[in-house]
Amino acid sequence: MEPALLYLATMLTLAGIYACLALGLNLQWGLTGLMNFGPLGFLAVGAYTAAILTAPASAQHMGGFGWPWYAAWPLAALAGALLALPIGAIALRLRADYLAIATIGIAEIIRLAVRNEDWLTGGPLGISGIPRPFEALGSPLGEFAFLGLVAACVAGLYMMAEATARSPFGRVLRAIREDEEAAKAVGKNPGAFRLAAFMLGAACMGLAGAMMAGFFKFMGPDALDPVVATFLVWVMLIAGGSGNNRGAILGAIAIWGIWAASDFLAAQLPPELATRAAYVRLFLIGLALQLILLYRPQGLLGERPGR
Amino acid sequence: MLELVNFYLIPGLVLGAIYALAAVGVSLIYGVMRFANFAHGDLMTFGAYAALFFVAGFGISPWAALPLAILATIPVALAADRAFFQPLRRSAPAVLLISSFGVALMIRAVVYLAYGPSPESYTRGFTPPVFLGEIRFQLRHLYILAGALLVAFAVHLLLAHTRAGRAMRAMADDPDLARVTGVPVAGVIRLTWAVAAALAAIAGVFLAIDTELTPMLGFNVLLAAFAGAILGGIGRPWGAALGGLILGLAEELSSYPWLGEGPLLEPTYKAGVAFAVLVLVLIFRPQGLFRGVG
Protein backbone atom coordinates (compact mmCIF):
# COMPACT_ATOMS: atom_id res chain seq x y z
CA MET A 1 0.00 0.00 0.00
CA GLU A 2 2.67 2.44 1.03
CA PRO A 3 4.74 2.32 -2.20
CA ALA A 4 1.59 2.96 -4.21
CA LEU A 5 0.72 5.96 -2.03
CA LEU A 6 4.24 7.26 -2.34
CA TYR A 7 4.09 6.90 -6.12
CA LEU A 8 0.80 8.76 -6.17
CA ALA A 9 2.29 11.54 -4.02
CA THR A 10 5.25 11.84 -6.40
CA MET A 11 2.97 12.08 -9.41
CA LEU A 12 0.71 14.62 -7.74
CA THR A 13 3.71 16.71 -6.70
CA LEU A 14 4.90 16.89 -10.30
CA ALA A 15 1.37 17.62 -11.49
CA GLY A 16 1.26 20.48 -8.96
CA ILE A 17 4.54 21.90 -10.24
CA TYR A 18 3.16 21.75 -13.78
CA ALA A 19 -0.02 23.42 -12.55
CA CYS A 20 2.11 26.39 -11.41
CA LEU A 21 3.69 26.56 -14.87
CA ALA A 22 0.28 26.36 -16.53
CA LEU A 23 -1.13 29.06 -14.24
CA GLY A 24 1.80 31.29 -15.17
CA LEU A 25 1.25 30.66 -18.87
CA ASN A 26 -2.46 31.31 -18.43
CA LEU A 27 -1.71 34.76 -17.01
CA GLN A 28 0.37 35.45 -20.11
CA TRP A 29 -1.50 33.73 -22.91
CA GLY A 30 -4.94 32.96 -21.50
CA LEU A 31 -5.62 36.32 -19.92
CA THR A 32 -3.42 38.69 -21.93
CA GLY A 33 -2.77 36.92 -25.24
CA LEU A 34 1.04 36.88 -24.95
CA MET A 35 2.70 33.96 -26.70
CA ASN A 36 5.52 32.72 -24.50
CA PHE A 37 7.26 29.77 -26.11
CA GLY A 38 10.07 29.80 -23.59
CA PRO A 39 8.62 28.69 -20.23
CA LEU A 40 11.77 26.55 -20.12
CA GLY A 41 13.95 29.66 -19.77
CA PHE A 42 12.01 31.11 -16.84
CA LEU A 43 11.77 27.71 -15.19
CA ALA A 44 15.52 27.23 -15.54
CA VAL A 45 16.39 30.60 -14.07
CA GLY A 46 14.14 29.95 -11.08
CA ALA A 47 15.48 26.43 -10.63
CA TYR A 48 19.13 27.49 -10.71
CA THR A 49 18.51 30.47 -8.45
CA ALA A 50 16.96 28.21 -5.81
CA ALA A 51 19.61 25.52 -6.37
CA ILE A 52 22.55 27.89 -5.94
CA LEU A 53 21.08 29.56 -2.86
CA THR A 54 20.20 26.33 -1.04
CA ALA A 55 22.70 23.68 -2.19
CA PRO A 56 25.78 22.89 -0.08
CA ALA A 57 29.11 24.41 -1.09
CA SER A 58 30.86 22.69 -3.99
CA ALA A 59 33.98 23.37 -6.00
CA GLN A 60 31.99 22.68 -9.15
CA HIS A 61 29.59 25.58 -9.00
CA MET A 62 28.70 28.72 -7.11
CA GLY A 63 26.99 27.95 -3.85
CA GLY A 64 27.30 27.32 -0.16
CA PHE A 65 24.95 30.12 0.83
CA GLY A 66 22.86 27.70 2.86
CA TRP A 67 19.63 29.61 2.45
CA PRO A 68 16.42 27.94 3.63
CA TRP A 69 13.88 27.19 0.92
CA TYR A 70 11.38 29.76 2.14
CA ALA A 71 13.93 32.50 1.58
CA ALA A 72 15.23 31.13 -1.74
CA TRP A 73 11.90 30.42 -3.44
CA PRO A 74 10.66 34.03 -3.53
CA LEU A 75 13.99 34.99 -5.04
CA ALA A 76 13.55 32.30 -7.68
CA ALA A 77 10.19 33.84 -8.58
CA LEU A 78 11.82 37.26 -8.69
CA ALA A 79 14.57 35.93 -10.96
CA GLY A 80 11.92 34.66 -13.38
CA ALA A 81 10.24 38.06 -13.40
CA LEU A 82 13.55 39.89 -13.88
CA LEU A 83 14.38 37.73 -16.89
CA ALA A 84 11.00 38.65 -18.34
CA LEU A 85 11.61 42.39 -17.91
CA PRO A 86 14.11 43.11 -20.70
CA ILE A 87 12.70 40.61 -23.18
CA GLY A 88 9.19 41.87 -22.53
CA ALA A 89 10.22 45.50 -22.79
CA ILE A 90 11.73 44.80 -26.23
CA ALA A 91 9.26 42.37 -27.78
CA LEU A 92 5.91 43.35 -26.27
CA ARG A 93 5.63 46.62 -28.18
CA LEU A 94 5.81 44.64 -31.44
CA ARG A 95 3.43 42.16 -32.97
CA ALA A 96 2.48 39.06 -31.03
CA ASP A 97 4.50 36.46 -32.92
CA TYR A 98 7.76 38.33 -32.35
CA LEU A 99 7.40 37.59 -28.66
CA ALA A 100 7.02 33.89 -29.47
CA ILE A 101 10.24 33.93 -31.48
CA ALA A 102 12.10 36.00 -28.89
CA THR A 103 11.07 33.71 -26.03
CA ILE A 104 12.19 30.61 -27.95
CA GLY A 105 15.49 32.46 -28.28
CA ILE A 106 15.79 33.31 -24.62
CA ALA A 107 15.11 29.69 -23.66
CA GLU A 108 17.90 28.52 -25.98
CA ILE A 109 20.33 31.12 -24.61
CA ILE A 110 19.61 30.07 -21.04
CA ARG A 111 20.21 26.45 -22.04
CA LEU A 112 23.53 27.40 -23.62
CA ALA A 113 24.51 29.41 -20.58
CA VAL A 114 23.77 26.73 -17.97
CA ARG A 115 25.72 24.23 -20.02
CA ASN A 116 28.77 26.45 -20.46
CA GLU A 117 29.07 28.66 -17.37
CA ASP A 118 30.57 26.00 -15.13
CA TRP A 119 31.58 28.44 -12.40
CA LEU A 120 27.95 29.35 -11.86
CA THR A 121 25.90 26.28 -12.71
CA GLY A 122 28.31 23.36 -12.66
CA GLY A 123 28.00 23.02 -16.46
CA PRO A 124 26.96 19.58 -17.69
CA LEU A 125 27.39 18.11 -14.21
CA GLY A 126 24.70 20.36 -12.82
CA ILE A 127 24.01 21.04 -9.17
CA SER A 128 23.31 18.12 -6.87
CA GLY A 129 22.43 17.76 -3.20
CA ILE A 130 19.75 20.45 -3.33
CA PRO A 131 17.85 20.11 -0.05
CA ARG A 132 14.17 19.29 -0.39
CA PRO A 133 11.84 21.03 2.06
CA PHE A 134 10.67 18.71 4.86
CA GLU A 135 13.01 15.86 3.96
CA ALA A 136 14.10 15.87 7.61
CA LEU A 137 10.70 14.31 8.38
CA GLY A 138 11.90 11.13 6.66
CA SER A 139 10.06 8.98 4.17
CA PRO A 140 7.16 8.89 3.48
CA LEU A 141 6.11 11.76 5.76
CA GLY A 142 8.58 14.18 4.14
CA GLU A 143 7.24 13.43 0.66
CA PHE A 144 3.68 14.00 1.78
CA ALA A 145 4.65 17.25 3.49
CA PHE A 146 6.39 18.43 0.32
CA LEU A 147 3.28 17.55 -1.66
CA GLY A 148 1.32 19.65 0.83
CA LEU A 149 3.70 22.56 0.26
CA VAL A 150 3.37 22.30 -3.52
CA ALA A 151 -0.41 22.06 -3.20
CA ALA A 152 -0.38 25.17 -1.01
CA CYS A 153 1.65 27.01 -3.65
CA VAL A 154 -0.80 25.95 -6.36
CA ALA A 155 -3.69 27.15 -4.22
CA GLY A 156 -1.90 30.42 -3.51
CA LEU A 157 -1.10 31.04 -7.17
CA TYR A 158 -4.64 30.08 -8.13
CA MET A 159 -6.10 32.63 -5.73
CA MET A 160 -3.62 35.23 -6.93
CA ALA A 161 -4.49 34.51 -10.56
CA GLU A 162 -8.23 34.59 -9.87
CA ALA A 163 -7.90 37.86 -7.98
CA THR A 164 -5.83 39.25 -10.85
CA ALA A 165 -8.39 38.18 -13.45
CA ARG A 166 -11.24 39.77 -11.48
CA SER A 167 -9.41 42.95 -10.56
CA PRO A 168 -9.62 46.14 -12.61
CA PHE A 169 -6.08 45.25 -13.72
CA GLY A 170 -7.29 41.90 -15.10
CA ARG A 171 -10.17 43.56 -16.88
CA VAL A 172 -7.75 45.88 -18.64
CA LEU A 173 -5.63 42.87 -19.67
CA ARG A 174 -8.66 41.20 -21.24
CA ALA A 175 -9.65 44.45 -22.89
CA ILE A 176 -6.17 44.76 -24.42
CA ARG A 177 -6.32 41.18 -25.63
CA GLU A 178 -9.73 41.66 -27.24
CA ASP A 179 -9.36 45.15 -28.66
CA GLU A 180 -6.16 47.06 -28.10
CA GLU A 181 -7.39 50.22 -29.81
CA ALA A 182 -10.45 50.43 -27.59
CA ALA A 183 -8.29 49.98 -24.49
CA LYS A 184 -6.01 52.76 -25.70
CA ALA A 185 -9.00 54.98 -26.36
CA VAL A 186 -10.03 54.82 -22.71
CA GLY A 187 -6.54 55.89 -21.71
CA LYS A 188 -4.84 52.58 -20.82
CA ASN A 189 -1.23 51.99 -21.77
CA PRO A 190 -1.23 48.47 -23.26
CA GLY A 191 2.56 48.14 -23.13
CA ALA A 192 2.83 48.62 -19.37
CA PHE A 193 -0.08 46.29 -18.65
CA ARG A 194 1.27 43.58 -20.93
CA LEU A 195 4.72 43.81 -19.36
CA ALA A 196 3.24 43.48 -15.86
CA ALA A 197 1.26 40.38 -16.88
CA PHE A 198 4.28 38.89 -18.63
CA MET A 199 6.45 39.36 -15.53
CA LEU A 200 3.79 38.01 -13.20
CA GLY A 201 3.47 34.85 -15.29
CA ALA A 202 7.25 34.50 -15.47
CA ALA A 203 7.43 34.74 -11.67
CA CYS A 204 5.05 31.76 -11.42
CA MET A 205 7.38 29.84 -13.77
CA GLY A 206 10.43 30.81 -11.70
CA LEU A 207 8.72 29.52 -8.58
CA ALA A 208 7.81 26.29 -10.38
CA GLY A 209 11.50 25.94 -11.26
CA ALA A 210 12.47 26.28 -7.60
CA MET A 211 9.98 23.56 -6.70
CA MET A 212 11.31 21.32 -9.44
CA ALA A 213 14.91 21.75 -8.23
CA GLY A 214 13.79 20.89 -4.70
CA PHE A 215 11.77 17.92 -5.85
CA PHE A 216 14.52 16.29 -7.91
CA LYS A 217 17.25 17.47 -5.49
CA PHE A 218 19.26 18.03 -8.66
CA MET A 219 19.33 20.50 -11.53
CA GLY A 220 21.34 20.07 -14.71
CA PRO A 221 21.11 20.98 -18.38
CA ASP A 222 19.74 17.56 -19.29
CA ALA A 223 16.76 18.19 -17.03
CA LEU A 224 15.83 21.13 -19.27
CA ASP A 225 14.07 19.64 -22.27
CA PRO A 226 11.98 22.03 -24.40
CA VAL A 227 9.45 19.29 -25.09
CA VAL A 228 8.81 18.55 -21.44
CA ALA A 229 9.25 22.06 -20.06
CA THR A 230 7.63 24.18 -22.77
CA PHE A 231 5.48 22.17 -25.12
CA LEU A 232 3.77 20.07 -22.47
CA VAL A 233 2.75 23.21 -20.58
CA TRP A 234 1.11 24.59 -23.71
CA VAL A 235 -0.77 21.35 -24.29
CA MET A 236 -1.91 21.39 -20.65
CA LEU A 237 -3.21 24.93 -20.84
CA ILE A 238 -4.96 24.48 -24.17
CA ALA A 239 -6.43 21.13 -23.14
CA GLY A 240 -7.65 22.54 -19.83
CA GLY A 241 -8.98 25.76 -21.33
CA SER A 242 -6.91 28.88 -21.81
CA GLY A 243 -8.27 31.86 -19.97
CA ASN A 244 -9.57 29.66 -17.15
CA ASN A 245 -7.37 29.15 -14.09
CA ARG A 246 -9.20 26.02 -13.01
CA GLY A 247 -8.78 24.76 -16.55
CA ALA A 248 -5.02 25.34 -16.29
CA ILE A 249 -4.84 23.22 -13.13
CA LEU A 250 -7.17 20.54 -14.49
CA GLY A 251 -5.20 20.40 -17.76
CA ALA A 252 -1.93 20.07 -15.86
CA ILE A 253 -3.23 17.15 -13.81
CA ALA A 254 -4.93 15.41 -16.75
CA ILE A 255 -2.08 15.76 -19.25
CA TRP A 256 0.56 14.92 -16.66
CA GLY A 257 -1.49 11.88 -15.69
CA ILE A 258 -1.56 10.69 -19.31
CA TRP A 259 2.14 11.48 -19.77
CA ALA A 260 3.18 9.62 -16.60
CA ALA A 261 0.86 6.69 -17.28
CA SER A 262 2.32 6.25 -20.76
CA ASP A 263 5.79 6.35 -19.17
CA PHE A 264 4.72 3.64 -16.78
CA LEU A 265 3.27 1.49 -19.58
CA ALA A 266 6.34 1.98 -21.79
CA ALA A 267 8.56 0.85 -18.92
CA GLN A 268 6.85 -2.54 -19.05
CA LEU A 269 8.04 -3.02 -22.64
CA PRO A 270 11.45 -4.40 -23.60
CA PRO A 271 14.07 -1.60 -23.64
CA GLU A 272 14.32 -1.42 -27.44
CA LEU A 273 10.58 -0.89 -27.75
CA ALA A 274 10.47 1.46 -24.76
CA THR A 275 12.57 4.14 -26.47
CA ARG A 276 10.39 3.85 -29.54
CA ALA A 277 7.30 4.18 -27.40
CA ALA A 278 8.63 7.54 -26.19
CA TYR A 279 8.74 8.76 -29.81
CA VAL A 280 5.25 7.47 -30.48
CA ARG A 281 4.13 9.39 -27.41
CA LEU A 282 5.76 12.55 -28.76
CA PHE A 283 3.83 12.12 -32.00
CA LEU A 284 0.57 11.48 -30.20
CA ILE A 285 0.90 14.50 -27.92
CA GLY A 286 1.49 16.66 -31.01
CA LEU A 287 -1.56 15.10 -32.65
CA ALA A 288 -3.64 15.56 -29.49
CA LEU A 289 -2.85 19.28 -29.55
CA GLN A 290 -4.04 19.48 -33.16
CA LEU A 291 -7.27 17.67 -32.38
CA ILE A 292 -8.01 19.94 -29.43
CA LEU A 293 -7.33 23.05 -31.54
CA LEU A 294 -9.59 21.72 -34.30
CA TYR A 295 -12.48 20.20 -32.36
CA ARG A 296 -12.48 21.77 -28.90
CA PRO A 297 -10.53 25.03 -29.10
CA GLN A 298 -11.96 26.21 -25.78
CA GLY A 299 -10.49 23.18 -23.97
CA LEU A 300 -12.15 21.12 -21.23
CA LEU A 301 -13.29 24.22 -19.37
CA GLY A 302 -13.72 27.26 -21.56
CA GLU A 303 -13.07 30.80 -20.43
CA ARG A 304 -15.93 32.00 -18.28
CA PRO A 305 -17.49 35.29 -19.32
CA GLY A 306 -15.96 38.16 -17.41
CA ARG A 307 -17.88 39.97 -14.74
CA MET B 1 44.15 37.62 -43.09
CA LEU B 2 44.31 34.28 -44.86
CA GLU B 3 43.13 32.60 -41.68
CA LEU B 4 40.17 34.94 -41.60
CA VAL B 5 39.16 33.99 -45.14
CA ASN B 6 39.78 30.27 -44.83
CA PHE B 7 38.37 29.51 -41.43
CA TYR B 8 35.79 32.22 -40.87
CA LEU B 9 34.68 33.93 -44.09
CA ILE B 10 34.15 30.84 -46.26
CA PRO B 11 32.31 28.85 -43.55
CA GLY B 12 30.32 32.00 -42.82
CA LEU B 13 29.26 32.34 -46.45
CA VAL B 14 28.23 28.69 -46.58
CA LEU B 15 26.24 28.90 -43.35
CA GLY B 16 24.78 32.20 -44.52
CA ALA B 17 23.64 30.63 -47.79
CA ILE B 18 21.89 27.85 -45.86
CA TYR B 19 20.27 30.30 -43.44
CA ALA B 20 19.19 32.40 -46.42
CA LEU B 21 17.30 29.45 -47.97
CA ALA B 22 15.67 28.68 -44.62
CA ALA B 23 14.77 32.32 -43.98
CA VAL B 24 13.20 32.73 -47.44
CA GLY B 25 10.93 29.76 -46.72
CA VAL B 26 9.84 31.16 -43.37
CA SER B 27 9.30 34.58 -44.91
CA LEU B 28 7.19 33.27 -47.82
CA ILE B 29 4.84 31.44 -45.46
CA TYR B 30 4.59 34.51 -43.25
CA GLY B 31 3.88 36.78 -46.18
CA VAL B 32 1.13 34.68 -47.70
CA MET B 33 -0.44 33.16 -44.58
CA ARG B 34 0.56 35.70 -41.90
CA PHE B 35 1.82 33.26 -39.32
CA ALA B 36 5.23 32.22 -38.01
CA ASN B 37 5.61 28.59 -39.06
CA PHE B 38 7.50 26.86 -36.26
CA ALA B 39 7.46 23.60 -38.22
CA HIS B 40 9.86 24.96 -40.85
CA GLY B 41 12.94 23.72 -39.00
CA ASP B 42 11.54 20.23 -38.74
CA LEU B 43 10.60 20.27 -42.42
CA MET B 44 14.33 20.86 -43.02
CA THR B 45 15.12 17.88 -40.82
CA PHE B 46 12.62 15.77 -42.71
CA GLY B 47 14.16 16.74 -46.04
CA ALA B 48 17.66 15.89 -44.81
CA TYR B 49 16.58 12.46 -43.57
CA ALA B 50 14.56 11.80 -46.71
CA ALA B 51 17.80 12.32 -48.66
CA LEU B 52 19.59 9.98 -46.25
CA PHE B 53 16.97 7.34 -47.01
CA PHE B 54 17.81 7.48 -50.74
CA VAL B 55 21.56 7.82 -50.15
CA ALA B 56 21.60 4.72 -47.94
CA GLY B 57 19.03 2.82 -49.98
CA PHE B 58 20.31 3.32 -53.51
CA GLY B 59 23.92 4.26 -52.83
CA ILE B 60 23.58 7.59 -54.63
CA SER B 61 25.22 10.86 -53.63
CA PRO B 62 23.27 13.35 -51.51
CA TRP B 63 23.28 15.73 -54.49
CA ALA B 64 21.45 13.16 -56.60
CA ALA B 65 19.11 12.44 -53.70
CA LEU B 66 18.22 16.13 -53.32
CA PRO B 67 15.41 16.21 -55.93
CA LEU B 68 13.92 13.06 -54.38
CA ALA B 69 14.13 14.64 -50.92
CA ILE B 70 12.28 17.69 -52.23
CA LEU B 71 9.58 15.48 -53.72
CA ALA B 72 9.26 13.68 -50.38
CA THR B 73 9.04 16.87 -48.31
CA ILE B 74 6.43 18.76 -50.34
CA PRO B 75 3.60 16.26 -49.61
CA VAL B 76 4.36 16.48 -45.87
CA ALA B 77 3.84 20.25 -45.91
CA LEU B 78 0.74 19.98 -48.09
CA ALA B 79 -0.74 17.28 -45.86
CA ALA B 80 -0.07 19.28 -42.69
CA ASP B 81 -1.72 22.29 -44.32
CA ARG B 82 -4.74 20.31 -45.46
CA ALA B 83 -5.24 18.49 -42.15
CA PHE B 84 -4.31 21.14 -39.58
CA PHE B 85 -3.64 24.64 -40.90
CA GLN B 86 -6.44 25.04 -43.42
CA PRO B 87 -9.29 24.51 -40.92
CA LEU B 88 -7.65 27.06 -38.63
CA ARG B 89 -7.11 29.65 -41.36
CA ARG B 90 -9.84 31.91 -39.99
CA SER B 91 -8.53 31.73 -36.42
CA ALA B 92 -6.00 34.13 -34.93
CA PRO B 93 -2.41 33.79 -36.23
CA ALA B 94 -1.47 32.75 -32.69
CA VAL B 95 -3.53 29.57 -33.03
CA LEU B 96 -1.79 28.69 -36.30
CA LEU B 97 1.57 29.25 -34.64
CA ILE B 98 0.69 26.90 -31.77
CA SER B 99 -0.58 24.37 -34.28
CA SER B 100 2.67 24.57 -36.25
CA PHE B 101 4.57 23.87 -33.03
CA GLY B 102 2.58 20.64 -32.73
CA VAL B 103 3.26 19.74 -36.36
CA ALA B 104 6.97 20.32 -35.71
CA LEU B 105 6.92 17.76 -32.91
CA MET B 106 5.00 15.24 -35.00
CA ILE B 107 7.54 15.47 -37.83
CA ARG B 108 10.41 15.18 -35.35
CA ALA B 109 8.80 12.15 -33.73
CA VAL B 110 8.64 10.42 -37.12
CA VAL B 111 12.34 11.14 -37.73
CA TYR B 112 13.23 9.83 -34.27
CA LEU B 113 11.17 6.70 -34.86
CA ALA B 114 12.83 5.98 -38.18
CA TYR B 115 16.44 6.84 -37.38
CA GLY B 116 16.82 7.25 -33.61
CA PRO B 117 18.65 10.04 -31.82
CA SER B 118 22.27 9.36 -32.80
CA PRO B 119 23.94 11.50 -35.48
CA GLU B 120 24.20 10.17 -39.03
CA SER B 121 26.04 11.39 -42.10
CA TYR B 122 25.78 10.93 -45.85
CA THR B 123 29.42 10.00 -46.37
CA ARG B 124 32.10 8.44 -44.27
CA GLY B 125 35.69 9.49 -44.00
CA PHE B 126 37.61 12.67 -44.43
CA THR B 127 37.68 14.70 -47.65
CA PRO B 128 40.85 16.74 -48.11
CA PRO B 129 40.40 20.44 -48.80
CA VAL B 130 41.04 22.01 -52.19
CA PHE B 131 43.57 24.80 -52.57
CA LEU B 132 43.17 27.82 -54.82
CA GLY B 133 46.47 29.55 -54.30
CA GLU B 134 46.49 30.17 -50.58
CA ILE B 135 42.74 29.92 -50.21
CA ARG B 136 41.59 26.52 -48.97
CA PHE B 137 38.08 25.22 -48.99
CA GLN B 138 36.03 22.06 -49.20
CA LEU B 139 34.56 21.23 -52.59
CA ARG B 140 31.20 20.64 -50.96
CA HIS B 141 31.25 24.25 -49.76
CA LEU B 142 31.63 25.41 -53.33
CA TYR B 143 28.73 23.20 -54.42
CA ILE B 144 26.52 24.46 -51.59
CA LEU B 145 27.21 28.08 -52.52
CA ALA B 146 26.56 27.43 -56.20
CA GLY B 147 23.42 25.47 -55.39
CA ALA B 148 22.08 28.19 -53.12
CA LEU B 149 22.71 30.82 -55.81
CA LEU B 150 20.88 28.70 -58.36
CA VAL B 151 17.92 28.20 -56.02
CA ALA B 152 17.82 31.90 -55.18
CA PHE B 153 17.75 32.71 -58.88
CA ALA B 154 14.93 30.22 -59.47
CA VAL B 155 12.88 31.70 -56.63
CA HIS B 156 13.55 35.16 -58.02
CA LEU B 157 12.30 34.11 -61.46
CA LEU B 158 9.20 32.56 -59.92
CA LEU B 159 8.34 35.61 -57.82
CA ALA B 160 9.24 38.31 -60.31
CA HIS B 161 8.30 36.86 -63.67
CA THR B 162 5.43 34.39 -63.31
CA ARG B 163 1.73 34.96 -62.72
CA ALA B 164 1.81 32.64 -59.71
CA GLY B 165 4.74 34.52 -58.19
CA ARG B 166 3.01 37.85 -58.66
CA ALA B 167 -0.08 36.41 -56.99
CA MET B 168 2.04 35.33 -54.03
CA ARG B 169 3.50 38.79 -53.67
CA ALA B 170 0.07 40.36 -54.04
CA MET B 171 -1.19 38.22 -51.13
CA ALA B 172 1.79 39.29 -49.05
CA ASP B 173 1.18 42.98 -49.76
CA ASP B 174 -2.57 43.06 -49.21
CA PRO B 175 -4.48 39.80 -48.71
CA ASP B 176 -7.93 41.41 -48.96
CA LEU B 177 -7.11 43.32 -52.11
CA ALA B 178 -5.64 40.15 -53.65
CA ARG B 179 -8.80 38.23 -52.81
CA VAL B 180 -11.21 40.73 -54.34
CA THR B 181 -9.13 41.10 -57.48
CA GLY B 182 -9.56 37.41 -58.16
CA VAL B 183 -6.29 35.84 -57.00
CA PRO B 184 -7.01 32.10 -56.55
CA VAL B 185 -6.16 32.09 -52.86
CA ALA B 186 -6.31 28.33 -52.23
CA GLY B 187 -4.02 27.60 -55.16
CA VAL B 188 -1.54 30.29 -54.19
CA ILE B 189 -1.40 28.90 -50.65
CA ARG B 190 -0.69 25.38 -51.93
CA LEU B 191 2.01 26.69 -54.23
CA THR B 192 3.56 28.66 -51.36
CA TRP B 193 3.69 25.52 -49.21
CA ALA B 194 5.30 23.59 -52.05
CA VAL B 195 7.97 26.26 -52.59
CA ALA B 196 8.61 26.64 -48.85
CA ALA B 197 8.88 22.87 -48.38
CA ALA B 198 11.28 22.60 -51.32
CA LEU B 199 13.41 25.39 -49.84
CA ALA B 200 13.31 23.67 -46.45
CA ALA B 201 14.41 20.35 -47.95
CA ILE B 202 17.27 22.00 -49.86
CA ALA B 203 18.44 23.94 -46.80
CA GLY B 204 18.20 20.78 -44.68
CA VAL B 205 20.19 18.64 -47.11
CA PHE B 206 22.84 21.37 -47.54
CA LEU B 207 23.16 21.76 -43.78
CA ALA B 208 23.44 17.98 -43.35
CA ILE B 209 26.11 17.82 -46.10
CA ASP B 210 28.03 20.58 -44.35
CA THR B 211 27.67 19.12 -40.83
CA GLU B 212 25.77 15.96 -39.86
CA LEU B 213 22.21 14.75 -39.48
CA THR B 214 20.48 14.81 -36.11
CA PRO B 215 16.75 14.93 -35.42
CA MET B 216 17.34 18.43 -33.98
CA LEU B 217 19.11 19.63 -37.16
CA GLY B 218 16.35 21.94 -38.31
CA PHE B 219 15.00 23.03 -34.96
CA ASN B 220 18.49 24.19 -33.97
CA VAL B 221 18.58 26.69 -36.85
CA LEU B 222 14.94 27.77 -36.62
CA LEU B 223 15.84 30.81 -34.52
CA ALA B 224 18.47 31.84 -37.08
CA ALA B 225 15.92 31.45 -39.88
CA PHE B 226 13.43 33.68 -38.08
CA ALA B 227 16.08 36.21 -37.12
CA GLY B 228 17.18 36.36 -40.77
CA ALA B 229 13.60 36.76 -41.97
CA ILE B 230 12.88 39.54 -39.48
CA LEU B 231 16.19 41.26 -40.19
CA GLY B 232 15.31 41.34 -43.88
CA GLY B 233 11.75 42.50 -43.22
CA ILE B 234 9.34 39.63 -42.64
CA GLY B 235 7.35 38.60 -45.71
CA ARG B 236 10.06 39.97 -48.05
CA PRO B 237 11.87 37.01 -49.64
CA TRP B 238 14.80 39.02 -50.99
CA GLY B 239 15.24 40.68 -47.62
CA ALA B 240 15.16 37.29 -45.91
CA ALA B 241 17.90 35.96 -48.20
CA LEU B 242 20.11 38.93 -47.33
CA GLY B 243 19.21 38.65 -43.64
CA GLY B 244 20.11 34.95 -43.58
CA LEU B 245 23.41 35.60 -45.31
CA ILE B 246 24.31 38.36 -42.83
CA LEU B 247 23.40 36.09 -39.95
CA GLY B 248 25.55 33.20 -41.13
CA LEU B 249 28.51 35.51 -41.66
CA ALA B 250 27.97 37.14 -38.26
CA GLU B 251 27.83 33.77 -36.56
CA GLU B 252 31.13 32.52 -37.98
CA LEU B 253 32.95 35.85 -37.83
CA SER B 254 31.95 36.32 -34.19
CA SER B 255 34.50 33.76 -33.05
CA TYR B 256 37.42 35.39 -34.93
CA PRO B 257 39.97 36.96 -32.56
CA TRP B 258 39.13 40.53 -33.59
CA LEU B 259 40.38 41.98 -30.29
CA GLY B 260 43.46 40.46 -28.70
CA GLU B 261 44.24 36.76 -28.59
CA GLY B 262 41.08 34.85 -27.83
CA PRO B 263 37.95 34.59 -29.98
CA LEU B 264 35.67 37.61 -29.71
CA LEU B 265 32.85 35.29 -28.73
CA GLU B 266 33.42 31.76 -27.42
CA PRO B 267 32.38 29.35 -30.23
CA THR B 268 30.04 27.56 -27.77
CA TYR B 269 27.92 30.71 -27.82
CA LYS B 270 27.76 30.95 -31.63
CA ALA B 271 24.10 29.98 -31.54
CA GLY B 272 23.52 33.08 -29.42
CA VAL B 273 24.49 35.39 -32.29
CA ALA B 274 21.11 34.84 -33.96
CA PHE B 275 19.42 35.85 -30.75
CA ALA B 276 21.59 38.92 -30.31
CA VAL B 277 20.88 40.03 -33.89
CA LEU B 278 17.17 39.40 -33.35
CA VAL B 279 17.15 41.54 -30.20
CA LEU B 280 19.06 44.36 -31.90
CA VAL B 281 16.68 44.33 -34.87
CA LEU B 282 13.65 44.34 -32.59
CA ILE B 283 15.04 47.32 -30.68
CA PHE B 284 16.36 49.46 -33.51
CA ARG B 285 14.57 48.43 -36.70
CA PRO B 286 11.64 46.11 -36.03
CA GLN B 287 10.36 46.54 -39.59
CA GLY B 288 13.62 45.04 -40.89
CA LEU B 289 16.03 46.25 -43.55
CA PHE B 290 13.27 46.15 -46.15
CA ARG B 291 9.96 47.19 -44.64
CA GLY B 292 8.18 43.96 -43.69
CA VAL B 293 4.53 43.19 -44.35
CA GLY B 294 1.91 44.39 -41.87
The CATH homologous superfamily of chain B is called ABC transporter involved in vitamin B12 uptake, BtuC
Straight-line distance between termini of chain B: 43 Å
Summing up helix and strand content along with how strands pair, one would put the structural category of chain A as mainly alpha
Mean pLDDT of chain A equals: 91
Task: Extract low-pLDDT stretches of chain A.
Answer: none
CATH topology of chain B: ABC transporter involved in vitamin B12 uptake, BtuC
Tally of alpha and pi helices of chain A: 12
Rg of chain A: 19 Å
Shape of chain A: globular
Strand content of chain B: under 5%
How many beta-strand runs of chain B? 2
Described by its quaternary structure, the protein is heterodimer
Structural class of chain B: mainly alpha
* CA-atom Rg of chain B in angstroms: 19 Å
Kindly report the greatest chain-chain contact and the residue count on each side.
Answer: A-B, 38 and 43 residues
| CATH architecture term of chain B | Orthogonal Bundle
- Residue share in helix of chain A: over 70%
Strand order of the biggest β-sheet of chain A? 1-2
The largest sheet of chain B is: 2 strands, antiparallel
The CATH top-level class label of chain B: Mainly Alpha
Parts with pLDDT < 50 across at least 5 consecutive residues of chain B: none
Topology:
The complex is a heterodimer of chains A (307) and B (294).
Chain A: H1 2-31, H2 39-54, H3 69-91, H4 96-116, H5 118-121, E1 127-128, H6 141-166, H7 168-178, H8 180-185, H9 190-216, E2 218-219, H10 226-240, H11 245-267, H12 271-295
Antiparallel strand pairs in A: 1-2
Helix pairs in contact in A: 1-6, 1-9, 1-10, 1-11, 2-3, 2-4, 2-9, 3-9, 6-7, 7-9, 10-11, 10-12, 11-12
Chain B: H1 2-33, H2 40-58, H3 62-85, H4 93-115, E1 130-132, E2 135-137, H5 139-161, H6 163-173, H7 175-180, H8 185-210, H9 217-232, H10 237-253, H11 271-284
